[in-house]
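Subgroup meeting minutes
Present: P.N., E.W., G.H.
Scribe: E.W.

1. P.N. recapped why we're keeping a running log of single-chain structure predictions: easier to compare across weeks, and new members can see raw inputs and outputs side by side.
2. G.H. added today's entry (155 aa).
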Amino acid sequence: PDGRSNILCAGESRFRIIRISGKVPYWKAHVELFEDVEEPEDQIKPHYDEVVRLYKLALDLASQLRPGKPADINIPESPVALSYMVSYVLELDFEEKQRLLEMISTMERLETLQLHLAQTVSQLRRQVDALGGGHQFVRFHLADEIVSHRLAELD
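Output recorded in log:
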């Protein structure tokens, strides 16, 4: 209705659309490839470590809200790959996901993810703390999964 399109692309390089060159029989565009700027590893490492810590904490808290064994996860060793993976699995609106994708600084992307993960951890802690009694409906979004279930009274 508003003329926008949400497009999911799988590819090997990130790109910006420079100019749309046609739409019949399908959309075509001239693009510019781009990569993240080079950043010193010693500056990125603390942000990488904090995103890993918060992500694992979020998964641990989420596992307390649902029955069964928590899923095994593989944490990417690359800060760039970690930033993309966490950007993908967090429940964020399309505009925020696009903003993260357009960032050319891994450090900036990791810093932004730290904020989102801290909010997620805070929400999860409140939900876990609220499990003290009564029936509760818990809803949590992570890794494209909606966890919804009724929790029975705890004795």
